[in-house]
Write a structure and sequence with these properties.
The chain contains 22 helices and 25 strands. The protein is α/β, with parallel strands linked by helices. Bound molecules: ligand C2E and calcium ion (CA) (2 copies). The site of ligand C2E has 24 residues, from strand 18, helix 12, helix 13 and strand 22.
Length: 765
């Protein structure tokens, strides 16, 4: 059982992982991946947007540097005094220093300025604020050459946005903020291996006072390196961190570059800076908390799934246990069924099996050839048992079985129904004489000696025969007739057989008398009493209730068992009045003991009577007792009646508040399946199981199984017929809820009940 459960546990685990855990985990994983990649791509997008914007700003600033250079030149290049000074045969270079070179260096941070005369020969030079020999120009001449040509109008290429070239209109898209008269060429260039902006501007008068000399103007050549000063300025104005100009790019993480291309397509260098990464910053700020949130979510999911798994597993396990209990019970049932129908010593059918075969014969017979039931009782068997012991007795019984069987056909049934009692069903025989001759042969065969344990043993037999359909009747009637005939055979000298005859039968007479007397007793409420048997809790210490049991003190015959007169009352319909009277009496006792439950037996016949439920309910209500205090005991035969009337009566009674107990559980057809179909509150395990405790392992196993099944179905389980302390101890351990039996008390009068309760309370105290 344990291994079965753990196997289901594994199966359950695999199923649970497949149907719940995996999908939930996959879902959680997908969600996490989606959330993270969305966050990530949003961050990257933000970074890209920021980078684009910075690059745009750098572009504007770099172009601005070109404009600024040209604009700073125009202040001195388009100026009468400078032009006039240069036209002098010996210009005053000191004046030039003060008004042009130093000015441009100091105010506009030019790194180098040169002046070229009309023949493009250098006449003035200032580098880093120091006057230098004009020949220094030759060091940068190659870089300046294309711009000099452009400014002179010797260029054949199209203008760049910064040029004011003779013959070309000012570029409409130009951002150069020089004066409209300025003619210049401005561009990026690599000078002395460094990225730079260079501008060449014609020096012209700014008023008509000085005569222009077109084509002969001097040129001002100005250079600014895009070095750390420039980059520093960018860093300040554009908020670029780590901005610098470089010739070559070296890949650095997070760095962004802006290419500096001259208008002739030469890549002069790059402006490089550390890119602003707002997205990355957000990502960095959010990732840990997002990770934490996801972790928390996963943990919650796992906890949830574990919780659900526990719940489901518990459910699965109790279902499993119920199933196991049910299976076990079924197995026991099958085993019990076999044991119940076979005699282990001889292998012959037993009394129950024989009875059911006779039932079938009765049901199938329609007055054809006679058949018969024979009861065989051995004479002197007890003596054999006493002298040769149980072993000898058993061997004798086996040999008797052999001889009886040898005289029967295969259609006949030989059964052992008691210690030394056999029952034989002789199937259809031509005549009564034929049956008589078989019986005679049996007597003769059993008269022959038996060889037991080395000695010869002589016994004999008495046989009673009941024929069908000589008089009819059911199984019990046939058995009773055969029994009566057998006793007659014994009484008349043994070792012979007798057919049942009418004159032997006193029972018919007896029943008629009983019916008459019972009618009388009921009409006058005479000699009838209800006694009450206490029902105890499992420990046997506390009284839980009583069962009402009918008693009849017959004026001539003395006390009669209800088992004798209740069937008569059922056959004649007297049971209706009798049953209701018992209920009324029981209600009186119920009112005297309001905390105890009172059980009342109901006959199956009562269920089929009209208005039965209404009458029962009315009697209880009129007496002032509560239906909740009354327990109605019904037998399995009531449930077996697959009759809607019976079933709805049961339902209605339960609906009215009565509890229903299933009496004599295990004796009838003992199929447990119908327990599911009917609503009962309690099972009363039959006394025959209780009495077999300690005698057969089977009884104990069945009691265990019934208790487990009952509890699994939510039913209370009572054991009847508890007579010994050993039985009580076993039943208590087995888990019975209530116990009833002579060990505690027989059924007693209501007055004696008061005494019982008093002494019981004392004992309990
Ligand atoms: P039952 O309902 O199974 O009642 C239990 C029977 O077992 C009672 O026999 C009781 O006296 C007997 N008993 C109780 N404890 C023990 C014990 O420890 N050992 C032994 N050997 N017997 C014990 P009782 O009173 O003779 O009743 C026999 C049956 O008659 C009842 O069986 C019940 O089926 C029927 N009966 C009794 N009163 C009524 C009644 O008012 N209405 C109907 N319809 N049937 C009744
Ligand atoms: Ca009962
Ligand atoms: Ca019973």
């Amino acid at each position: 059982m344990r291994s079965r459960i753990s196997k289901t546990g594994n199966r359950f685990g695999a199923r649970y992982i497949g149907t719940v855990v995996m999908p939930v985990l996959v879902m959680a994983l997908c969600l996490t991946i989606f959330a993270f990649s969305a966050l990530r791509s949003a961050a990257q997008q933000a970074d890209r947007v920021a980078a684009d914007k910075q690059a745009q700003e750098v572009g504007v600033a770099v172009n601005g540097a070109l404009d600024e250079l040209a604009q700073s030149q125009s202040g001195v290049a388009i100026w009468d005094p400078a032009v006039s000074e240069l036209r002098k045969p010996k210009p005053d270079w000191n004046w030039f220093d003060n008004n042009v070179g130093t000015w441009l260096n100091f105010v506009y941070a030019h790194d180098a300025d040169f002046v070229l005369q009309a023949d493009d020969g250098p006449v003035y030079g200032m580098v880093n604020g120091q006057r230098v020999s004009p020949t220094a120009f030759f060091r940068i001449a190659s870089a300046a050459r294309p711009l000099v040509d452009a400014a002179r109008g010797r260029s054949t290429r199209p203008p760049n946005p910064h040029e004011r070239l003779p013959g070309f209109p000012a570029n409409p898209g130009s951002t150069a903020r020089t004066s409209p008269s300025a003619i210049h060429a401005t561009d990026f260039a690599t000078i002395a291996g460094r990225p730079a902006v260079i501008s060449v501007m014609r020096m012209i008068p700014d008023t008509p006072k000085v005569k222009p000399m077109p084509g002969k103007e001097p040129l001002l050549v100005s250079i600014r390196y895009l070095g750390s000063r420039f980059a520093g300025g960018l860093a300040k104005t554009q908020f670029l961190s780590g901005a610098r100009a470089v010739r070559q790019l070296t890949p650095t993480p997070g760095a962004q570059a802006f290419p500096l291309d001259s208008s002739r397509g030469e890549r002069v260098g790059y402006i490089v800076w550390q890119a602003d990464q707002p997205g990355r910053a957000v990502w960095r700020a959010m990732a840990p908390s997002a990770g934490l949130a996801v972790g928390g979510l996963l943990a919650a999911l796992v906890a949830l799934m574990i919780g659900v798994a526990k719940l489901l597993r518990r459910d699965a396990r109790s279902l499993e246990q119920l199933e196991a209990a049910h299976l076990e019970l079924k197995a026991r049932e099958a085993q019990a069924h076999h044991l119940a129908y076979h005699d282990t010593l001889t292998g012959l059918p037993n009394r129950a099996f024989f009875g059911s075969v006779v039932d079938q014969m009765v049901a199938a017979s329609h007055g054809q050839d006679p058949w018969a039931v024979l009861l065989v009782d051995l004479d002197r068997f007890k003596q054999v048992n006493d002298t040769l012991g149980h072993l000898g007795g058993d061997m004798l019984i086996q040999q008797v079985a052999q001889r009886l069987k040898s005289l029967c056909s295969s259609a006949d049934i030989v059964a052992r129904i008691g210690g030394d009692e056999f029952a034989i069903l002789l199937a259809a025989r031509g005549s009564r004489d034929e049956i008589a001759s078989i019986a005679d042969a049996m007597i003769a065969a059993l008269r022959q000696p038996f060889e037991i344990l080395g000695t010869h043993v002589f016994i004999g037999a008495s046989i009673g025969i009941a024929c069908y359909p000589s008089r009819g009747g059911d199984r019990s009637e046939l058995m009773r007739m055969a029994d009566i005939a057998m006793y007659r055979a014994k009484a008349e000298g043994r070792d012979d057989f007798r057919f049942f005859t009418e004159d032997m039968d006193e029972s018919v007479k007896f029943r008629r008398e009983i019916e008459q007397d019972l009618r009388e007793a009921i009409t006058h409420k005479r000699d009838l009493h209800v006694h009450y048997q206490p029902q105890m809790d499992a420990s046997g210490a506390t009284v839980i209730g009583f069962e009402a049991l009918l008693r009849w003190d017959h004026p001539e015959r003395g006390p009669l068992s209800p088992q004798v007169f209740v069937p008569v009352a059922e056959d004649t319909g007297l049971i209706r009045e009798l049953g209701l009277w018992v209920l009324k009496e029981a209600c009186g006792v119920a009112r005297a003991w309001p905390t105890l439950s009172i059980a009342v037996n109901l006959s199956p016949v009562q269920f089929r009577m009209r208005d039965f439920v209404e009458e029962v309910t009315a009697i209880v209500r009129q007496s002032g007792a509560s239906p909740a205090q009354i327990e109605l005991e019904v037998t399995e035969s009531v449930l077996l009646d697959d009759d809607e009337v019976v079933r709805s009566a049961l339902r209605d009674l339960r609906g009215a508040g009565f509890r229903i107990a299933l009496d004599d559980f295990g004796t009838g057809y003992s199929s447990l399946s119908y327990l599911n179909k009917f609503e009962v509150d309690k099972i009363k395990i039959d006394r025959s199981f209780t009495s077999r405790i300690g005698e057969t392992a089977d009884a104990a196993a069945i009691i265990y199984a019934v208790v487990r099944l009952g509890h699994a179905m939510g039913l209370s389980v009572t054991a009847e017929g508890v007579e010994t302390a050993e039985q009580k101890a076993f039943l208590e351990i087995a888990g019975c809820n209530e116990l009833q039996g002579f060990l505690f008390s027989p059924a007693v009068t209501p007055e004696a009940l008061d005494d019982f309760m008093r002494t019981h309370r004392r004992a309990a105290a």
